[in-house]
Amino acid sequence: MATVRIENATIWTGSPLPGGAIAVTDSVLFEGGRILALGATAKRLVADEVIDAVGGFVCLGFGDGHVHPLFGGLEPQFAPVRDRASAQEIAEVVGRWAQEHPTAEWIRGEGFDHTLAPNGVFMAAWLDAVVPDRPVVLRATDYHTVWVNSEALRRAGYQRGLVQPHDGEIVLDEFGDPTGTLREWGAWRPVYALVPEVDLKTRMIAIAQANECFVSAGLTWIQDAWVEATDVDTWIEADRSGLVTCRVAMALWADPNSWRDQVEQFVTARTKVDAAGSPRLVANTIKFFADGVIESATGALLEPYCDCPHSKGLPNWQPDELKSAVAAIDALGFQTHIHAIGDGAARMALDAIEHASVINGARDRRPVIAHTQLVADADLGRFAELGVIANFEPYWAKFDSWQTELTEPRLGAERTNRQFMIGTILRSGAPISFGSDWPVTTYAPLAGIQVAVTRKMTATGPTWMPQECLTVEEALLAYTSGVAFQAGDSAGVIRPGARADLVWLAADPRTVDPMQIENIAVLGTWADGRRVW
Ligand SMILES: [Zn+2]
């Protein structure tokens, strides 16, 4: 086993000193996946390989507490609808892709900008003009909104007089005809059920692509936040084929309509992953979607939407049912991971976790509430009280077109300026972890850190909710120790005996211009002591 020393670096250990600063040293020695020594001791011991970090910065490998590797990795296989400037431009690239792929039965695309149509309503006719004869199904970058053409509507049997699902919205026009916009599962699952499954070879390519993205950005652990039965096999197969070099924790998706039948499958999946014997894979988390998203008015709120005074959104679960489900999987030793966007969803999620803690008794359970977009004042202290990890996607904490076009008109100014209270929840003593929700937004932790610190769109622009900005060190901790805590790691810092997950950056993010943090190059990544980038 080779012994490696990285020297001539700022080794930012993640360990707090008395007074609150984080301890730094200048070299680290590791072997066989474990850190052996730091500083002067590391330099006195013999190393097989010595890396001169040329004054760079080394910290614990980043973790992503909420990400979708398969969605992100598959996206390039479909029509390139992301980052288009208008609905018309999206339709054009879909038409071109369809022409270039005459044998594709379905035309798919992932990641279009759902702020490009008024109220986020996209019309089937716009796609019919470019692809009239084959079904088209496009998913927005929020992953909650879908845009289809008329042929897809026809195949799904969506027509005037349809019955709305209880867990979604088939958006209708003034005559009662489906527009082509589908919100949340209940509305779009019947369409995706008709789409042929992506074959294993393509799924392998997607995992390889996602893994490459992760390690190149300094990530050594990720939480796959939406895993269904076939995905478990995909991960095991990809790992066997050597395509996975970071560690992956799978969150198995709980269906509100059939979770009681799923419980046994969850246990089977966990056993299967353990039996596969990979040190990189684990499936011990269950994912719940408490609600949708505010931009589609499906996020669950405590008070009505401003633009729709009779609606408080669309919770995916009945509160008592969520309590029962969380308690059931918690009793089996699974970790809870709940998507909660609106303040109604956050309360429901906190209540369910509290219920499980009371019913099942004390244990080290590390439950996670993901996104934590809007939380009522009365609930802010409950994260710390219940030991709930508040997972944030810091890249979302900027006042962009999602906010101006789709969120503020629905929430109003007061609630709009109470979103992503990262600083407040951190100061309340709650554990926090960061993630990206990629492909919703970039997987790069340095880009997330930049926004967590600045909450700005541009260098000269305003800071959104300045009291919620973190220091660079706080943001680094949330992306390293914070996620390591979510992962169940016992150390979460760089010290002898700890896991040798390390990232080497070209510059110290604490000393560069905060608006340049995302441009710092990632020069090396080590996962369990193995160089993976
Ligand atoms: Zn997600």
What does the model show?
This protein is of the alpha/beta class. It has 2 domains: 335 residues, Metal-dependent hydrolases (TIM Barrel), CATH 3.20.20.140; 87 residues, Diaminopimelate Epimerase, Chain A, domain 1, CATH 3.10.310. Helices cover 33% and strands 22% of the residues. The strands form 4 sheets. An 8-stranded parallel sheet has the order 8-14-15-16-17-18-19-20. 53% of the residues are buried. The mean pLDDT is 96. The site of zinc ion has 4 residues, from loops.
In brief, what are we looking at here?
By secondary structure, the chain is of the alpha/beta class. Helix content is 33%, strand content 22%. The chain contains 17 helices and 23 strands.
Output the radius of gyration.
23 Å
Span of the ends, CA to CA: 19 Å
Average pLDDT figure:
96
Strand content: 15-25%
Return the domain count.
2
Largest β-sheet summary: 8 strands, parallel
The hetero molecules present are: zinc ion
The CATH architecture designation of the largest domain is Alpha-Beta Barrel
Number of helices: 17
Uncertain spans? none
| Inertia-based shape | globular
